[in-house]
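Here is the promised in-class demo. Please do not try to memorize the tokens; focus on the logic of going from shape to residues.
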């Protein structure tokens, strides 16, 4: 009888959702000194997932949403100066398309495509 109770309790546990503190893994983007400058240049990110830019270069950079540079548009993110060996992390974005650049080096640009569902392809 005792064995049946233990088996019943254990089997119920298999079908019960246990609370978790799991978080979405971050999307890593590396700042590079040469083209394409942001690797990957275009990233697909699930909604709400963190995004982190790492700067291993010998130069300071910024990660600035293009909306910050255009009158009347929403400035969604601007890192300020990201120093050598520093990083900038966004805690997550709503679904949409987010072009960005380095204000110090406007030739450097990339794009974040945030989706409701995650498709693990990065270009």
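The designed amino acids, position by position:
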């Amino acid at each position: 009888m005792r064995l049946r109770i233990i088996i019943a309790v254990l089997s119920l546990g298999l079908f019960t959702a246990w609370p978790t503190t799991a978080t979405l893994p971050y999307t890593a983007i590396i700042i590079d000194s040469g083209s394409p400058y942001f690797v990957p240049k275009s990233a697909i990110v699930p909604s709400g997932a963190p995004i982190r830019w790492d700067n291993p270069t010998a130069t300071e950079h910024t990660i600035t949403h293009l909306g910050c540079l255009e009158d009347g548009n929403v400035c969604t993110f601007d890192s300020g100066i990201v120093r050598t060996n520093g990083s900038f992390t966004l805690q997550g974005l709503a679904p949409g398309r987010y072009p960005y650049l380095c204000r110090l080096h406007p030739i450097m640009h990339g794009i974040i495509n945030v989706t409701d569902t995650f498709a693990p392809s990065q270009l």
